[in-house]
Amino acid sequence: MEGVGEEGASPVAPIAKWRNDFSRLFQYYLDRSTPHMVERWLGTLAVAMIYVLRVYFVQGFYIVSYALGIYILNLLIGFLSPKVDPEVEALDGASLPTKGSDEFKPFIRRLPEFKFWYAITKAFCIAFLMTFFSVFDVPVFWPILLIYWIVLFILTMKRQIMHMIKYKYVPLNTGKQRYTGRNSAASSSGLRKD
């Protein structure tokens, strides 16, 4: 019978243990960063600036930048879209509230803010790493890619804004809404509590 000690251990076990420890530590710090939204986005902005400076000084990797722009545009659409599409919901018979007596349905994003931030940060890091491999530096005329991306952005945002206007939702909020409550209703009806 073989022993379970050091002699029977495979060389893959330390690598698997290191990977597991690294994954656990990475998840710990990722979880701790969740409430610090401003700091997370400032870090992502720093990563994005490093990527932009790298592309500027290398004078290449425009295809990588274009693909990154398309990916970020796709993430932005997911961030601005509701989890349940009102067009599909209207076909099922259920719809958004149209009167004050209807049930309140809060706006729930298809792509939550944290996942949006994480995906963008990861995308910039991967694109930055790709700039170190010449196989990704395909020679293109970058102004055409830029103009095409701008047109695509405008058309996509126009469609998204029209969808937001049609179904009357606003995906951006600045925090918890505060209501004045009964004081404004009581003062307008002339009733006072003493």
TrEMBL record:
GO terms for biological process: protein retention in ER lumen; retrograde vesicle-mediated transport, Golgi to endoplasmic reticulum. Keywords: Membrane, Transmembrane, Transmembrane helix. Its main location: membrane. Transmembrane segments: none annotated. It is found in: Membrane. One of its GO terms (cellular component) is endoplasmic reticulum. Pfam families: Rer1 (PF03248). InterPro entries: Rer1. It is a multi-pass membrane protein. Involved in the retrieval of endoplasmic reticulum membrane proteins from the early Golgi compartment. PANTHER family: PROTEIN RER1. Belongs to the RER1 family. This is Protein RER1. It comes from Punica granatum (Pomegranate). The lineage of its organism: Eukaryota, Viridiplantae, Streptophyta, Embryophyta, Tracheophyta.
